[in-house]
Design brief:
single chain; about 60% helix; mainly alpha; 21 helices; 2 domains; 5-stranded mixed β-sheet; about 525 residues
């Protein structure tokens, strides 16, 4: 019920959403732990197009004779169309085997996004928690605007509503953090305090007439039974396409990540179905057909309190940032950027910003790959970085280089400069130094040294005899250094791929070093 309200619809729609998905999942699902149905972040994402299009519809179509039912029916059409389109996108992803795309939504990205989304959820519940009528905003900057609008109407807070909210939040938090952990250790399932709070609050609200006497907002009439099926409005598809894609990706990413998490904890493959979903559906049928009218007096602030306490786990993810900083600064930055973008821009744009930034960090990691010279540690068979290990020494006449990443267009120049600096040879300077004295091939001659074999990256090396007059002064120190280097070994065990630019760079480097070592 609370999530139905969060999605911009009526609470009864939350019950419908909690009935049909688990029933389908009973036949096709594979996880013992996944709770299919309503979810705060997905409900919030679904509310974005609902609120946006409903506001436009109201401005254009509402007249003095119109009722709230007209806007509600339109909201319902938008929500149904978003749901259908999101499901079709996920179905299409399954047919095309596009599940691998989920790997691009990393844990830091998902953590920062869901944590910031929780703040949006809290902002959307301020009306019900404080009993005010705050105008809901849409578009970029929605969260700061929501809090600004809340400050403007804070003086209109309903005392009875905020009192109920504080009591409910306190009771729920005590059970969640203090009592339920002890109960779960003994009976392996938590005490359903939310149900108890809901029943008590509904009973008090009904007999004390909190709505009539103190202005406490309640759920209102709930229709019995299941509604008639309604076809979605396909004309809305162009307006909700982007929102539906985001909903489908976020729903899939969160569901799969949770399924894998619990499967790893319980040590089983995600392939078994339990009857828990069927039992929950049976309970909801009872609620929809019999108990529904008894829930008319449920205070909205109670539902919002349940949502608020349920979000504490998601908000607690912010405590993971210090751990990320210690383990990986880049992952921590991805978390922070996604969080800030989602908070200060919008939920959909925040996810897109975080995803783009995450992909940029992957590109930067490959471009700035770790590279170092390996040295031999005496009396062992180990070869370690000479920079990190002082005991690692260069073998006589041998240089071992390790470039820790793929060689492609973005880092090929860096690779070439690194080899030149490490070996101590600058081909261009040497060519200019000796060009007036010897017949040294210039860099432009490299392309003429290719063999005629079919291999794209196979080149033959020439033995060049260079006559240096005896009366000439000694060569520059870097050439003297080259005389002591007879072999250069390149460790490419960490190369995952190499493109055409990288192949040409590798050939140029090998050509230069071979020529200079022959001088």
């Amino acid at each position: 019920m609370a999530y139905g309200y969060l999605a911009g619809l009526r609470p009864i729609n939350g019950l419908y959403t909690s009935f049909f998905p688990p029933l389908v999942y009973f036949f096709f699902g594979t996880s013992r732990h996944i709770s299919v149905g309503t979810f705060s972040v997905v409900a919030l994402l679904s509310a974005a197009p609902v609120d946006r299009l409903a506001a436009t519809f109201a401005d254009v179509n509402i007249t003095s004779n119109s009722t709230d039912n007209v806007v509600y029916d339109y909201r319902l059409k938008v929500a149904i169309t978003v749901t259908l389109l999101s499901g079709l996108i996920q179905f299409l992803m399954g047919l095309l085997r596009l599940g691998f795309l989920m790997v691009y939504i990393s844990s830091p990205l998902l953590g920062g996004f869901t944590c910031a989304s929780a703040l949006h959820v809290i902002a959307s519940q301020l009306n019900a928690l404080f009993g005010v009528k705050m105008k809901r905003t849409v578009g970029p900057g929605i969260l700061p605007l929501d809090f600004y609008n809340f400050i403007l109407v804070f003086k209109e807070t309903n005392v009875a509503t905020i009192t109920i909210s504080v009591i409910c939040i306190t009771v729920l938090a005590i059970f969640k953090f203090l009592i339920n952990p002890k109960i779960e250790a003994k009976i392996h399932f938590p005490f359903p305090v939310e149900v108890v709070v809901l029943i008590l609050a509904t009973t008090i609200s009904h007999f004390a007439q909190l709505n009539q006497r103190f202005g406490v907002r309640i759920v209102g009439p709930l229709p019995q039974g299941l509604p008639k099926p309604v076809l979605p409005d396909l004309n809305l598809v162009p307006s909700i396409a982007v929102d539906s894609i985001i909903v489908s990706f976020v729903a899939l990413a969160t569901t799969v990540s949770l399924a894998k998490l619990y499967a790893s904890k319980a040590v089983y493959d995600v392939k078994y179905t339990l009857v828990a979903s069927l039992i929950s559906c049976a309970v909801l049928v009872l609620v929809l057909t019999v108990i529904g009218p008894s829930l008319e007096s449920v205070p909205m602030c109670v539902l919002s309190s349940i949502i608020l306490v349920s979000l504490t786990g998601i908000l607690g993810q912010i405590m993971e940032v210090p751990k990320l900083l210690r383990s990986s600064v880049i992952d921590a930055v991805v978390w922070i950027v996604t969080f800030l973008a989602t908070v200060f821009i919008d939920v959909p744009l925040g996810l897109i910003t975080g995803l783009v930034f995450s992909l940029v960090t992957v590109l930067c990691r490959t471009q700035l790959s770790t590279s170092y010279e390996l040295g031999h540690i005496k009396d062992t068979d180990l070869y370690e970085s000479r920079t990190l290990y002082t005991a690692a020494e260069r073998l006589p006449g041998i240089v071992i280089l390790r470039f820790g990443g793929p060689l492609y267009y973005a880092n090929s120049e860096r690779f070439q400069n690194w080899v030149t600096e490490t070996v101590g040879l600058d081909a261009n300077k040497v060519y200019k130094e000796l060009q007036s004295k010897t017949a040294v091939p210039t860099p432009s001659d490299r392309s003429q040294d290719k063999c005629s074999c079919s291999s794209k990256c196979c080149y033959r090396s020439q033995t060049l005899e260079v006559a240096v007059p005896e009366e000439e002064p000694p060569l520059r120190p870097q050439l003297a250094n080259a005389i002591n280097i007879r072999f250069i070994i390149l460790d490419i065990s960490s190369w995952t791929f190499i493109d055409v630019v990288g192949a040409h760079t590798l050939h140029d480097v090998s050509f230069d070093t071979v020529v200079l070592m022959k001088i």
